[in-house]
Structures are given as C-alpha cells and as structure tokens.
C-alpha cells in the first residue's frame, strides 16, 4: 500500500520541481515492476506457508501467469499510443490498475487468502490484455473504426419510472436471497474438506466471486431504494407535513440500517473463509447488532416526532 502511495507521489514531486527525466521514468517503471513481483512473491510464499498451495505444475503455471500478466499490463499501457483505448480497458471491471491489484492482494493477505488475490491479479491482468489486443486487432482489420473515431453524443437525463425502480428492487432482492442461499450451501460443502487442496481452493475462489456478487446486488438494492425515496420524498413530505430536511434525515438512517443488514452476510462469510477465531466473528456480529438497534431507535424517534401532531389529534378525538 505504501508503494502505491509513493508511486503516485514521486511523479507529482518531479512535476512540481520540474525535474522530469527519461531516466527517472524508466527507473520508476522498473522499480514498480520489481515491487509488484516481490509483493506477488510474498503472497506465493504465504500460500506455501499456509498449505494452500504446493510446488505442483498447476500452481507454478498460475503463479507464473499472474506475475507475467502484472508486468505485461504496464508494458502494454506504456507502448500503446492510443491512451483512450488503454484508459477504457483499465477503467472497466475487473480493474487491472496497479493500485487496485495491490489493494486486493493486500486485503487477501490480511485475511489469509493470498491465493484468491493472486487469482484476481491473474484474471484482471489477462482480461485487460485480451481486451486491448482484440481492440487493436479490430482496428487493424478495419472493424469497429467508426465506433472508435465517432464521438458518442451526450446522453439525455432520463428518470426511471417508480414502477420500474420497484421492479428492479424486487428482482435484485430475489437475486440476493438466492446468492445467500447458494453461498451458505457452498460453505457447508467446503467444510466437508478436512485438508487444503486444489478442490478447496477452487471452492474458495467460487465463494469469493459469490461474495462479490452479493455485495454488488446489495449495492443495487440500496441505490434503487434511495432513488425511490428521493422520487416520492416531496409527496410524502407534503402528506405528513414535514420538511424535506427531516424526511432526508429519516431516509438516510433507513438506508444505513438496510446497508448494515445487507453487509452482515458477506462479512460473516468472509470471516468464515478466513478461518478466524469464533470470538472475532461473534464480536463483529455484536457490533452490527448494536448499530442496528441504535438506528432502529433513532428512526423510531424521528417517526414519532414527525407524526406527533397526528398522534395528538387521534388521542384528543379518542378522549372526547
């Protein structure tokens, strides 16, 4: 992580003092590749130390392709003149940029899952290479030149109907529930393995993809709900005689409550995959529970204050 920070700072410092040189650019690129190789080498060493990997041909091929892919991403980014093409390939999923690769590998190492980080580097790097090579091949053969040269017109702002947004929420919630069920079954199947081998690594990689999809659909649900709350905010505020500020505060707390509930499952599965002690998992769940209780109480207090005048009117009518 520090190498990524210093890698971004050195260029800015050189530009600030007007000390950019060709030798400095070559030295910076060379040192970055050495650091990347050392970081991946450390992850490989941890994989061997934890018993996740062994000196077999399949592991050697995976590790070698990960290192070559990491180096070749930077090589292609430097030699290709069309920087717009490179930027489009780098800014699309699975984001092969150096900062993302180092961050993912660092988190994987912290959770004792270095092999998953290496697999991410392998997949993201070679996916970027394939996209760039195919794009250049299409351009050379005259395919898709109009799409590359022609600038796309700015898209008009189109508001999604509430009905469509509600449909998207229901669809994404169903996907999320299915992923939670499938992931739970996957962990039950993974627990049947007593030793670490290639089968457990494959299953852990599949479960990591499922956790990423779970987080993605949780984000989609929260985004759609936030859109619906904003669209109906004026109507609700007018009918309940409340200010938009109060309605916005309640909406934010409601979204935070749902976010905590939705991320509990991926984090619990991630901790289980990391094989941490049970007391740590219980502590994390306890923190989540406290946060949920606090938000529920805060939302209830805000709702009671909002409906205070209506509650008083109902009570006065009852006692009359």
Automatic annotation (TrEMBL):
The chain crosses the membrane at residues 59-80, 100-121, 127-149, 169-187, 207-229, 250-271, 283-307. It holds the Pfam family CDP-OH_P_transf. It comes from the Archaea. GO terms for biological process: phospholipid biosynthetic process. The keyword Cell membrane does not apply. One of its GO terms (molecular function) is phosphotransferase activity, for other substituted phosphate groups. Keywords: Membrane, Transmembrane, Transmembrane helix. InterPro entries: CDP-OH_P_trans, CDP-OH_PTrfase_TM_dom. One of its GO terms (cellular component) is membrane. The keyword Nucleus does not apply. This is CDP-alcohol phosphatidyltransferase.
